[in-house]
């Protein structure tokens, strides 16, 4: 029993028997009090009672405390206790003795007391009846609960029986299915047997087909041989045409005949190094260099020069590949054409160059035939590649374009060469001019045979006496002469030598007509081809008044001497007022240039047109005028007579006008170097004159004037405007100018001729091509979506944008803009987004959801690729670089004929991911983990591992590379990692941080997947852990496919001895065994690897030789370095990293000594020795000597060394 506070209480109890009457005892002084006071107060208080029923159960019942107060007695404390119940169920009350020592009279005779007792008894009887009823109800409830529990138990038993019956039926069904499967297996075995028989028949049929195919291939090979011979005939015919083609001096600035050969025999990686190809010029000797009594052979041969290294081989071959191929075929087979004899390759003369590197020339002489053959094969392969990709050579688009190697092409050739002998002529060749006026480049022997040394020495002295310069190799003279007497001696030496091709002369006195005639006569007799004459001092002497009006006529006549090809006149302000009408033809003149400062009147313009009309061979006209706006319209009278004219350039000082004539069309280009220097008249002229092409450079303050000029020139074909300090763009004058208005400005009124344009402003860049009145390949580059205004969005949606680049992350508030662009731009093909890694998944889902919605709605979705990169103009290279930041890069592609998509993802986790949370990365892996190609990161919290374990497996995993940094991921996620690798058929690259924690699991991972690894990276701080790895993987047998081995200990201590032995085993070349003789029997289970190694089953397996070895930070003793270097497989090695190691001078020399000179299969490309002991302790001279020897042995190698 508990009270209201749930505390246990112990009731007072009286054990009683039925029939016992409760005795009430009162005090002895009751008789002295009035009867009315005998029972003054009756208090009945319930305490505790125990009632025992017929079933002998005890029940608690409260008792009543009775206090009787009369005048004659005192009842201090009477505590009755209810004992057992009588036969009538009434409780018998017994009072405890608590009265005074006075007498205790009986109360039975007192009426008041009797009434009180009767009341008590009646109440007790009523309470007992209530208790009995309560007990009966409780018992009924217990019975009812028991019955209900019994029924529930029966129901559960029934359910269990039903479930058991169901399982029994399923068991029977499984047995039946098993029997069916067994029958199916028997059927499959039978069908497999039949299929094998069919396959055997098919194999027999295929063998017959293969035989027929072989016969067909043989026929095709014969056809290809015939085609090759036909192509060779075509090549030789074009070479013949090339050799017989003549060139003039201004078209022939450098030698034109040359070949290109590799410095080594290896072609595996053709364009990774700039020093592996060398260009050799040829001497153009022939009948034009022969003279009576000459004993010098006059056959084409290599020039006396060691050749020039190519700086950009790939670009060079794209531009000159066809030409080089023709030249190589020419020297391979030989040819005779146009008085030129080219002997076959076997008889080709390679000069002896004692002053040059003898070893190089010896190698060239010894290997000339295979080098030529290999180079021809290379160029033919490049030609096939270009045809397959739709690409053509930039300039030489086939054999029909061989003749295009002139002028600009030859001048650009020098930019591809590493010229060490600055100031000298290429190839030590000399330029000569044949009697027919054709230019040839010959060696010194053939040059000297045609020109006497004494006359050349006399000319050299004459030039030097006037402070001039004479470049004998090119025949160029620059000189100033002060008097006519001194000029006479110079003219005599000039005519005797007859070796001057270019003459730039300035007469610093006011020459008369006779002086000018003497100069022109000497120029004609000396066969000068290019003349620049400065007439600044020709003001007109008073003694020559008679000849004033025809003073410059000898210069007119000089143009018709049938030798002069270029004439440039400087400082002749009144030239046209001192000449008569020109009437002589000048067919050989190719270039005419003139400068004057006084405006030309109508008479002068008419004389200029008359002169130009007689220059039928003129190709270039350059005029520099002042204070006058001379245009091509002023020269239109002469155009019909100048059929070969290519361009006219009129220089106005502050700007220039270039007019070209491609295919009988006129194309004008306005070139403005500075806008701030333009006068009002200049601006008016530019605005009113029709221009189709304009190039402008301006500053920001000139934007208003620039815009005014552009608006007045609606006929522009191509606009190239350059703000000073920026790249070439069309730049808007105001940042809020509508994009459509700028488009209209560029394309207004010339939709059929505009070819390309670009618009650049602060918020975006637009680039596009233009063809047949329509824009093509329009690209928009946006810095941030928030910067776009409504006009920009409308322009993007309404125009055919094919590529869109957003360099910064589209935030949540601007996702609607991106969705609108994707939805309303069906022409969009490529999308690039610079995206912060936390929003990568959101952007991916947005693109995929938008695409799915458009397809479901029957719309057109033209997007083919989506690239998610890092923010900014130069995205982070996630494969080559590493920092402490997280990077996620994705590439999505959408095929045209399918609703599916492909995706590739590169993930590199940084340290901030641990604190910021891996939620976004986890979500990407959960949904698109199959797309992860590269993963490198910390997996401390296990979130990423869990995501990989639960990732969607709807597609095959594309994982190729995995770098694990944390020990927790190895200890707790080894099964997940192993499962990921098992599900990735392209997995080849594994990187581990070797620590004590997780080491066992890491070794287990290596043991499971070592046979498929081509790259292994091991990093760590504790050297003892590397010892454990060395014991676990002592040889390469567990890593047979490994091509890259990278070891990086961080603590800088010397590695244990067993680790050194392990390194030796890892870097060793496969064991070489001699090939069996013809008489020896080779077992069937013997395999031959790439290196020619024979290994039988059960013996030590061979392995792939390493292409990359990284021992960064490795500290070894001298003897240990010796062991490593001696075991290193140098023939297959391409990359060696010894940075931060303690390799010393002698060990490095040993490494260089192991490399064989001119090894045919040597692939050595990079050597990294930065921050190594070798770079720190070796003096520069000794180091340079070793490196020079290494470069000689391995021409392809690139050495990374601290400066």
How does this model look, in words?
It is a single chain. With 1203 residues, the chain is an alpha/beta fold. Among the domains are: 1-131, no CATH class; 231-286 and 298-430, no CATH class; 451-583 and 590-617, Leucine-rich repeat, LRR (right-handed beta-alpha superhelix) (Alpha-Beta Horseshoe); 876-985; 988-1071 and 1100-1203, Ribonuclease Inhibitor (Leucine-rich repeat, LRR (right-handed beta-alpha superhelix), Alpha-Beta Horseshoe). 36% of the residues lie in helices and 18% in strands. The strands form 8 sheets. It has an 18-stranded mixed β-sheet. A 12-stranded mixed β-sheet has the order 14-15-16-17-18-19-20-21-22-23-24-25. Strands 5, 6, 7, 8 and 11 form a 5-stranded antiparallel β-sheet that branches. Helix 23 runs parallel beside helix 24. The longest helix has 134 residues, at 111-244. It starts with 49 loop residues before the first strand and ends with a strand. Residues 27-108, 265-273, 353-357, 387-404, 714-719, 722-735, 749-753 and 1074-1101 have low confidence and may be disordered.
By oligomeric state, this entry counts as: single chain
- The overall strand count is 45
Shape: elongated
Alpha-carbon distance between the two ends: 97 Å
The largest sheet, given as strand count, sense and whether it forms a barrel, is: 18 strands, mixed
Query: Residue-averaged pLDDT, rounded?
Result: 74
Rounded to an integer, what's the Rg over CA atoms?
53 Å
pLDDT < 50 stretches: 27-108, 265-273, 353-357, 387-404, 714-719, 722-735, 749-753, 1074-1101
- Share of β-strand residues: 15-25%
Assign the structural class, choosing from mainly alpha, mainly beta, alpha/beta, alpha+beta, or little secondary structure. alpha/beta
């Amino acid at each position: 029993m508990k009270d209201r506070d749930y505390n246990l209480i112990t009731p007072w109890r009286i054990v009683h028997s039925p029939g016992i009457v409760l005795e009430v005892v009162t005090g002895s002084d009751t008789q002295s009090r009035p009867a009315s006071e005998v029972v003054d107060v009756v208090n009945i208080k319930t305490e505790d009672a125990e009632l025992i029923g017929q079933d002998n159960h005890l029940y608690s019942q409260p008792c009543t405390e009775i206090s009787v107060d009369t005048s004659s007695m005192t009842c201090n404390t009477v505590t009755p206790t209810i004992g057992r119940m009588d036969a009538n169920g009434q409780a018998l009350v017994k009072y405890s003795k608590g009265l005074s020592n006075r007498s205790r009279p009986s109360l039975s005779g007192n009426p008041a007391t009797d009434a009180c007792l009767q009341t008590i008894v009646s109440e007790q009887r009523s309470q007992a009846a209530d208790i009995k009823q309560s007990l009966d109800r409780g018992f009924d409830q217990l019975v009812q609960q028991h019955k209900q529990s019994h029924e529930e138990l029966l129901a559960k038993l029934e359910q269990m029986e039903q479930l058991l019956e169901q399982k029994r039926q399923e068991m029977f069904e499984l047995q039946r299915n098993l029997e069916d499967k067994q029958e199916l297996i028997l059927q499959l075995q039978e069908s497999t047997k039949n299929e094998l028989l069919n396959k055997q028949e098919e194999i027999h049929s295929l063998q017959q087909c293969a035989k027929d195919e072989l016969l067909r291939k043989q026929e095709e090979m014969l056809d290809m041989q015939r085609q090759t011979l036909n192509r060779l005939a075509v090549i030789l015919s074009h070479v013949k045409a090339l050799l017989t083609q003549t060139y003039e001096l201004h078209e022939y600035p450098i030698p034109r005949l040359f070949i290109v050969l590799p410095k080594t025999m290896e072609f595996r990686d053709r364009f990774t190094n700039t020093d592996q190809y060398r260009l050799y010029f040829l001497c153009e000797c022939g009948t034009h260099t022969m003279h009576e009594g000459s004993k010098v052979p006059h056959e084409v041969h290599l020039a006396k020069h060691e050749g020039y290294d190519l700086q950009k081989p790939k670009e060079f071959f794209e531009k000159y590949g066809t030409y080089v191929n023709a030249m190589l075929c020419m020297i391979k087979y030989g040819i005779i054409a146009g008085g030129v004899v080219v002997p076959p390759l076997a008889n080709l003369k390679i000069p002896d160059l004692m002053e040059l590197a003898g070893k190089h020339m010896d190698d060239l002489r010894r290997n000339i035939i295979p080098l030529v053959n290999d180079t021809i094969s290379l160029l033919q392969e490049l030609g096939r590649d270009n045809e397959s990709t739709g690409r053509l050579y930039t300039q030489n688009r086939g054999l029909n374009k061989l003749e295009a190697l002139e002028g600009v092409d030859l001048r650009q050739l020098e930019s591809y060469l590493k010229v060490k002998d600055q100031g000298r002529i290429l190839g030590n060749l000399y330029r000569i001019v044949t009697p027919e006026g054709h230019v040839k480049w010959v060696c010194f022997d053939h040059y000297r045979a045609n020109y006497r040394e004494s006359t050349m020495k006399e000319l050299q002295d004459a030039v030097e006496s006037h402070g001039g310069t004479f470049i004998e190799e090119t025949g160029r003279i620059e000189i100033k002469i002060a008097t006519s007497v001194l000029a006479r001696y110079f003219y005599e030496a000039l005519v005797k030598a007859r070796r001057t091709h270019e003459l730039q002369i300035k007469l610093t006195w006011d020459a008369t007509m006779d002086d000018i005639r003497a100069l022109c006569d000497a120029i004609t007799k000396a066969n000068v081809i290019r003349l620049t004459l400065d007439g600044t001092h020709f003001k007109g002497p008073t003694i020559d008044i008679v000849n004033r009006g025809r003073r410059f006529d000898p210069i007119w006549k000089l143009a018709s001497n049938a030798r002069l090809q270029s004439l440039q006149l400087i400082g002749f302000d009144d030239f046209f007022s001192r000449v008569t009408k020109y009437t002589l033809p000048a067919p050989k003149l190719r270039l005419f240039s003139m400068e004057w400062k006084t405006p030309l009147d109508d008479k002068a313009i008419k004389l200029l047109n008359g002169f130009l009309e007689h220059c039928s061979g003129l190709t270039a006209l350059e005029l520099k005028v002042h204070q006058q706006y001379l245009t091509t319209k002023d020269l239109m009278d002469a155009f019909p007579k100048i059929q070969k004219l290519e361009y006219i350039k009129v220089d106005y000082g502050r700007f220039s006008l270039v007019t070209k004539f491609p295919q009988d069309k006129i194309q004008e280009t306005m070139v403005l170097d500075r806008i701030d220097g333009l006068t009002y008249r200049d601006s008016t002229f530019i605005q009113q004159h029709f221009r189709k092409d304009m190039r402008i450079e301006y500053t920001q303050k000139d934007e208003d004037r620039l815009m005014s000029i552009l608006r007045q020139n609606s006929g522009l074909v191509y606009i190239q405007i350059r703000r000073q300090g920026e790249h070439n763009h069309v730049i808007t004058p105001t940042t809020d100018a509508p994009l459509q208005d700028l488009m209209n400005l560029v394309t207004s009124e010339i939709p059929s001729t505009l070819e390309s344009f670009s618009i650049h402003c602060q918020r975006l860049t637009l680039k596009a091509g233009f063809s047949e009145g329509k824009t093509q390949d329009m690209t928009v580059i946006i810095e941030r979506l928030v910067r776009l205004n409504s006009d920009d969005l409308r322009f993007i949606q309404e125009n055919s944008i094919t590529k869109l680049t957003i360099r910064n992350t589209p935030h949540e508030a601007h996702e609607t803009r991106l969705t609108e662009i994707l939805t309303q731009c069906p022409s969009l093909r490529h999308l690039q987004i610079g995206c912060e890694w936390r929003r990568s998944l959101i952007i991916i889902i947005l693109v995929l959801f938008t695409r799915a919605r458009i397809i479901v709605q029957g719309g057109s979705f033209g997007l083919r690729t989506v690239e998610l990169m890092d923010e900014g103009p130069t995205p982070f290279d996630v494969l080559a670089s590493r920092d402490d930041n997280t990077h996620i890069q994705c590439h999505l592609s959408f095929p045209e004929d399918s609703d599916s998509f492909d995706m590739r993802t590169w993930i590199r986790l940084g340290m901030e991911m641990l604190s910021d949370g891996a939620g976004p990365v986890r979500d990407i892996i959960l949904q698109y983990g199959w797309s992860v190609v590269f993963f490198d990161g910390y997996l401390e919290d296990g979130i990423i591992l869990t995501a990989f374990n639960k990732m969607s497996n709807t597609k095959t995993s594309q994982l190729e590379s995995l770098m694990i940094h944390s020990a927790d991921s190895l200890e707790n996620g080894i099964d997940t990692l192993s499962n990921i690798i098992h599900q990735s058929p392209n997995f080849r690259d594994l990187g581990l941080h070797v620590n004590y924690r997780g080491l066992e699991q890491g070794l287990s991972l290596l043991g499971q997947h070592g046979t498929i690894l081509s790259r292994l990276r091991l990093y760590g701080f504790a050297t003892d852990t590397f010892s454990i790895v060395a014991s676990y993987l002592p040889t390469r047998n567990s890593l047979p496919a490994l091509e890259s081995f990278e070891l990086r200990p961080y603590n800088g201590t010397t590695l244990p001895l067993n680790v050194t032995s392990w390194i030796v085993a890892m870097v060793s070349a496969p064991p070489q065994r001699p090939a069996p003789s013809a008489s020896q029997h080779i077992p069937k289970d013997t395999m031959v690897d790439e290196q020619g190694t024979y290994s039988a089953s059960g013996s030590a397996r061979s392995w792939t030789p390493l292409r990359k070895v990284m021992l960064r930070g490795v500290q070894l003793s001298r003897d240990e370095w010796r062991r490593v270097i001696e075991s290193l497989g140098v023939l297959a090695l391409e990359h060696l990293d010894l940075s931060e190691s303690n390799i010393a001078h002698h060990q490095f020399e040993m490494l260089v000594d192991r490399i064989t000179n001119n090894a045919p299969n040597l692939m050595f490309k990079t050597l990294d020795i930065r921050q190594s002991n070798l770079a720190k302790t070796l003096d520069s001279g000794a180091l340079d000597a070793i490196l020079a020897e290494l470069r000689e042995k391995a021409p392809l190698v690139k050495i990374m060394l601290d400066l």
